Amino acid sequence: MRPFFGWFFIIILAPVLIYIGMIAGEEANNVKALDTVLDEKIPISKIQLARNSYIYDQKGNLISEVISEQENRIVVSYDNVPEEIKQLYLVSEDQHFFEHIGFDAAGMLRAVFTNIKHQSIEQGGSTITQQLARNVFLSHEQTYNRKLSELLYSYQLERTWTKEEIFETYLNSIYYSNGVYGIATAATYYFGKELKELNLAEMAFISSIPNNPTVYNPLQHFENTKSRQELLLLKLHENELLSKEDYEKEIKAPIKLNVRGQIDHYPDYVTYVHDELNELIAQKEGYSKKINEANEENRPAIKKQLNERINQITRNGIIIHTALDPSIQQKVTKAINSRLPYESIQGSAIVIDHKSHKIVALSGGKNYKKFDFNRAYQSYHQPGSAIKPLLDYAPYIDTTGATVNSMIDAGKFCKGIYCPKNYSGKNYGHVTLETALKNSYNTPAVRMLNNVGIEKAFSYLKPFNFDKTVKADYGLPAAIGGFTYGMSPLELTSAYTAFANGGNFYDNHAIIKVTDLQGNTLYEWEEKPVRVWKESTNDQMRHLLASVVSSGTGKRAAFSAPYIGGKTGTSNDYNDLWFVGLTDKYTAGVWVGKDKKGSVRGIYSSGIHLQLWKQVINN
């Protein structure tokens, strides 16, 4: 009996206290009015419920839902809630909602006496406003302090918000089991429909769940949910909101669940989009600059602020528009999964539309799972001869005015103790630049770097922003791929897009723009081209790269197309196999190797990296 008498005194005393406070506020100028005290102690502003964000492909198709704070929620406005839904909740939860001041004293008394009579909890007595206060601002602990706080919060809510705002927030905040929050989300999750598409029987069915999300979980206790649905429909009939004929029709209407789980496709690409979103927000809101300028002691605090800001933005609901081409992404994923059956050998591939400067597909590795280590942009490898066009040939042609037919010594080279050799071990004498590149001779490349000068040649790499290029790399071994860490597949592929843009380099991105849920643009990348080498140099380089494919080390990548050019790369001891190349529309890169350094010489002769590239980019 004690709980019931506790509730009884709260119900009696709370209105009295509020009434006395209101009188006191009016009559005593030197005492603060109750409303003023409540405004100070319980300030309530419009809350922003955590809601879903969305990632779309280039054609506007949804590819991933981003659920914030483990609350799967689609927010619906009051005006877009069907009248039948409103009636269902009013007759079952709070018939006097539009008349009371936050709590219904008469209703609470009726609930107390009913519960005393049955010696059990038959009625709750809480208004919609009280339930909202409990769900959003308070807890569900069964103490009298919490219950009294609930009444005060409810009264304050009614003073601060309109009835429509309270009802809307209530419908969007309540829990519908299985991680689902809000009436609109429930419609989508359980029936695969928008809320407005449901019939009355379906509306009543999902409206049954919040009363006890465990007992009325339709995936585990369908019959319980159906029984309560029939009770809600009966209440509509008893309140003359549903005719007897329609009531009997609705309770017999079949309920066919069509559970629609979270949409989450293309994990390789979506993982990258999440990281790029962080980078975009950091850059646009100044966090990148702060982090770069901060000392080691202050940097963690700034990064924490950035993470909090990103969480705030995503929980408010955003739409991330990307350049993903699903057909190419599927092709990339299939190629990596099917052509690398060897247990310890991994691979990645990237495809960039170099005309729009957008990443249209990427593979993070075989059988990739979302948020796993993504080899497309998180792994770094020595580039082998794939670096030669960027560090050796383009700078040499750009500074000397050489052409594809210019001669270069492919014989023995030594500088100090450094004496690189050609792959075959042979010396070829003087050859054209075309012959040197298409056969990937090493000594001509080293001579070019030496001729240009290491500092000057490396200045040509700066626009590409290779993240792990360090001062120790500034030496002649870099001419043939000798780097401390190397490049990620995405970095190297992105650099090659300069050959498709007349010698200009554009940063390539997956994200086109970020908007709010109403379509207003919040963030987008700025295109700032940087000229890396002269256009005349680029013309010579395109000729050289085409020769690699037509009659050089990249012949297995050839297929019929207006233009194909590229460069193979093999690091020391066959640890890494590369092919990076371009067609008239796309630039693509493929890396094959092991996560921990190890030789893949056994598959080198098959030209697996060339086969992968051809499969990925050939339409």
UniProtKB/TrEMBL annotation:
It catalyses: [GlcNAc-(1->4)-Mur2Ac(oyl-L-Ala-gamma-D-Glu-L-Lys-D-Ala-D-Ala)](n)-di-trans,octa-cis-undecaprenyl diphosphate + beta-D-GlcNAc-(1->4)-Mur2Ac(oyl-L-Ala-gamma-D-Glu-L-Lys-D-Ala-D-Ala)-di-trans,octa-cis-undecaprenyl diphosphate = [GlcNAc-(1->4)-Mur2Ac(oyl-L-Ala-gamma-D-Glu-L-Lys-D-Ala-D-Ala)](n+1)-di-trans,octa-cis-undecaprenyl diphosphate + di-trans,octa-cis-undecaprenyl diphosphate + H(+); Preferential cleavage: (Ac)2-L-Lys-D-Ala-|-D-Ala. Also transpeptidation of peptidyl-alanyl moieties that are N-acyl substituents of D-alanine. The chain crosses the membrane at residues 7-25. GO terms for molecular function: glycosyltransferase activity. This is Transglycosylase domain-containing protein. Its main location: membrane. Residues 60-235 form the Glycosyl transferase family domain. It is found in: Cell membrane. Pfam families: Transgly (PF00912), Transpeptidase (PF00905). It comes from the Bacteria. SUPFAM superfamilies: beta-lactamase/transpeptidase-like (SSF56601), Lysozyme-like (SSF53955). Its EC number is 2.4.-.-. Residues 347-587 form the Penicillin-binding protein transpeptidase domain. InterPro entries: Beta-lactam/transpept-like, Glyco_trans_51, Glycosyltr_51/Transpeptidase, Lysozyme-like_dom_sf, PBP_transglycosylase, PCN-bd_Tpept. Keywords: Carboxypeptidase, Cell membrane, Cell shape, Cell wall biogenesis/degradation, Glycosyltransferase, Hydrolase, Membrane, Multifunctional enzyme, Peptidoglycan synthesis, Protease, Transferase, Transmembrane, Transmembrane helix. It is an enzyme of class 2 (transferase).
